[in-house]
Design brief:
The chain has a seven-stranded antiparallel beta sheet with strand order 2-1-5-6-7-4-3, with helices on one face. With 216 residues, the protein is an alpha+beta fold. The protein starts with 14 loop residues before the first helix and ends with a helix. The protein is globular, with a radius of gyration of 20 Å.
Length: 216
């Protein structure tokens, strides 16, 4: 959808407009400006070892972005050295969106989460599809090794503050919606795919079967 400047007022679209706006925002503190490191240090290693979940951001040659979740037991991501980490690719829907983007544009952004902790770890760098037998063997679960993984060469590592989690109350169970009021994934998937004979009941059954039998 083309953005209509006449409809949405005060839209910043040029570098000159942004620089003027940047002056209004102000400059980051010395700590915020200097917190980025270029290698995976012992603090990052400790964080990653306790993280069971991350989001992976990639984009194609046109800059179209994609963000997808990755999750497993805490420490499922292996830190190989100060510059490299390995993310096993578990069974999914076989769309291969992230892998396709990585082949075209290796730039990647990762955001690591630890349940109950507001701060997150951001790692940016270059990514490669990796089928190293030793790394795949080390990542096996229930005797099943992944077919491939994502090797990330880190360029930037830094901690991100907890303000978003505090504002959202994400880890506060008292703020969670009642289960019966949550959006229905089977209803959304059935409506969006819109396939003949693909009913809500069939989609719900397939999802539950996949969650039970096809995690690894």
């Amino acid at each position: 959808m083309k953005l209509m400047r006449s409809k949405y007022l005060d839209i910043i679209t040029t570098r000159e407009e942004f620089e003027s706006f940047r002056e209004e925002i102000g400059t980051p503190s010395a700590r915020a400006a200097s917190k980025v490191i270029t290698f995976i240090d012992e603090h990052c290693i400790d964080f990653i070892s306790k993280s069971p979940f991350l989001t992976m951001s990639t984009s194609d040659s046109d800059g179209k972005c994609d963000v997808s979740p990755r999750g497993d037991f805490p420490g499922f991501v292996t830190v190989l050295d100060e510059q490299h980490l390995f993310i096993p690719e578990r069974k999914g829907n076989k769309r291969m969106d992230s892998a396709h983007n990585i082949i075209i544009n290796p730039n990647i952004g990762l955001l690591f989460f630890i349940p109950g902790l507001g701060e997150t770890l951001r790692i940016n760098g270059k990514a490669y599809i990796c089928r190293d037998p030793e790394l795949l063997a080390r990542s096996q679960v229930n005797g099943r090794a992944p077919l491939f993984g994502i090797l990330v060469e880190a360029d930037e590592c830094f901690i991100h503050c907890a303000k978003a989690f505090i504002r959202s109350g994400l880890w506060n169970q008292e703020s969670w919606l009642a289960k019966e009021t949550l959006p229905s994934a089977p209803a959304m998937l059935a409506a969006h795919a819109n396939l003949p004979n693909d009913t809500f009941e069939q989609v719900a059954k397939d999802l539950q079967e996949g969650y039970k039998n096809r995690l690894y």
